[in-house]
């Protein structure tokens, strides 16, 4: 059953190309706009975010947390978006990964409040589009960029990443924590659109103490490299078949 409030589609709303990029953080918007040849496009407001759109690609962001991310995704899908690549940051909770590492999520544990509103039955996790995830992996391999693949934990509460919760999701095999992906994966399946993600590790909680790494060289440089890889992905043909 549809919600009473739906994304607005009028003569004044944009008609988007099928493929787009979602950027969670403001500081990744300009590098992505440059990599996607959208730097000269005048952005339009999209709630508290911005939307850059051209004939073949669009870019939307920034946003924080599951409700905001899903509100953006719902609108972009209503306006024509069918294939989305998400770029964001995450905090390591596994000693296997380190600040500046690249992570391609294969599953997201649901610890946010948006997904249950879209699920027909209770679920504790959601997944990205397998074929689109494969394209991200291929692009990273072609650029000789090492990466990790595995589960992430999606939370609504950045200041409630308690030792008990970190240990719980470590026990479930999560490599990192972030704030959007389980909801984006859930809602993409509901909308029958494709989404996959690539993250760069910005900080480390794996030892149950916080180590920020926002100024570390590898973190800054690998974000630039990921933006370039996303450009190579969006030049490939659109996927077909099942979502």
Could you walk me through the main structural features you see in this protein, from its secondary elements to its overall organization?
With 243 residues, this protein is α/β, with parallel strands linked by helices. It has a single domain (19-234), classed as Nucleoside phosphorylase domain (Rossmann fold, 3-Layer(aba) Sandwich), CATH 3.40.50.1580. The chain contains six helices and eleven strands. It has helices at 26-35, 66-78, 130-142, 163-171, 181-191, 217-234; strands at 19-23, 44-46, 49-53, 58-61, 83-92, 102-111, 125-126, 148-155, 174-178, 194-204, 211-212. The chain has a five-stranded mixed β-barrel, surrounded by four helices. It is globular and about 55 Å long. It starts with 18 loop residues before the first strand and ends in a 9-residue tail after the last helix. The mean pLDDT is 95.
Compact overview of the structure:
With 243 residues, the protein is an alpha/beta fold.
Features:
alpha/beta; single chain; five-stranded mixed beta barrel; 6 helices; Rossmann fold
What's the total count of β strands? 11
Order of helices and strands: EHEEEHEEEHEHEHEEH
Helical element count? 6
- CATH C-level class is Alpha Beta
Helix content: 25-40%
Task: Please give the alpha-carbon distance between the first and last residues.
Answer: 21 Å
CATH homologous superfamily heading: Nucleoside phosphorylase domain
Tally of domains: 1
Radius of gyration: 17 Å
